[in-house]
Amino acid sequence: MLTANLSGYPKRPDLDAIRKYLDAGGENPFTTAVKNAVQGQKKAEIDIVTDGQIRDPVSVIAYNVPGMTTDGSVCIEGKLGAPRRPTMALDFLIATAECGDARLVKAVLPGPFSFAKSCQVTTKSPYSSNCDVDLLFDIASIIRFEIEALKENNARLIQIVEPIESVKDIDIFLEMLSFVFKRVKTPICHIEGDISSAFPLLLDAKISVISFDVVAFPQNREILKFEELFEVHEKIISLGCVDSSAAKKDSVESIERRVIAFVDAFGYESVWISPNKNLASLPQRTAFQKLKQLTSAKNRIAARMT
């Protein structure tokens, strides 16, 4: 079993830090924020860390894509072209240097569906809506461009995040996963929402790790009945088992209860555990405590297995 941060970790630089940097120089505050995010995750003894998603990935990627504008919100105003340069590898490299091992840093990007959902499609564009299949495949090409750059910088763990409610055609979704993750060492997809009805078709996805939420969507426990199919397809599951809302404090025992049935069904080595959502909006202390609870739950489960 491995513990993994799902995606973000607080906090992004404030305006005062950015102004001070612009006036006086020194270390870029975004670089400092990435380093601090990695340090916080490592202090919580998390096995797989992220760069903290200090920058909004949709806006950062869109800035370099012809056909997109980023003035306040991301708008699609024309046919999307090839990105002028990759952007996501920068923070990954900072996180890798801070962590000391690229194998333990997970790069996290929006998937085509979630990226499209975050954009406004204007009437100037050739696309009919955010669900236009041509738009989704054009965005998939952009995501793959970023993934290729991450691979060149030794990224092995690469995750995209997709909302199941936006997936209207599971076959198109599976085709896109195969396209964006071509030759990725350990492709990971976190699927937001109720994914119980998407099984067993999701097991055909060209991904190594299927990640999902069992806190807000306890019905996702229904996939336990596909135990034998998981073994055939050699999938790892990553359980979003820690409530990421600020008001909720999980006990270690409640986290353990959410996880143990999956460990019994799929085996200790085939289960990862993580927060159920992005931690970036939380106070740092709260986010840290949630990750520490995750580590404590792993240790309790490991003790049960011996």
Explain the overall architecture.
α2 (29-43) crosses α4 and α9 (252-266) packs across α10. The protein has a single domain, classed as TIM Barrel. The radius of gyration is 19 Å and the shape is globular. The chain has a 7-stranded parallel β-sheet. Strands 2-3-5 form a 3-stranded mixed β-sheet, with no helix packed on it. The two termini are 13 Å apart. Helix content is 40%, strand content 14%. The protein contains 10 helices and 10 strands.
How many helical elements? 10
Strand content: 5-15%
Q: How many domains, as an integer? A: 1
Strand order of the biggest β-sheet: 1-10-9-8-7-6-4
Class of secondary structure makeup: alpha/beta
Fill in the CATH topology: TIM Barrel
Unreliable stretches: none
Order of helices and strands: EHHHEEHEHEHEHEEHEHEH
Q: What is the annotated CATH architecture?
A: Alpha-Beta Barrel
Shape field? globular
Short recap of the structure:
The protein is α/β, with parallel strands linked by helices and 306 residues long. It has a single domain (2-305), classed as TIM Barrel (Alpha-Beta Barrel), CATH 3.20.20. It contains ten helices and ten strands.
Secondary structure: elements and pairs:
Blueprint: E1 2-3, H1 15-24, H2 29-43, H3 57-62, E2 68-69, E3 75-76, H4 89-99, E4 106-110, H5 112-117, E5 120-121, H6 133-152, E6 157-163, H7 170-180, E7 186-192, E8 209-213, H8 227-233, E9 236-242, H9 252-266, E10 271-275, H10 284-305
Helix pairs in contact: 2-4, 6-7, 9-10
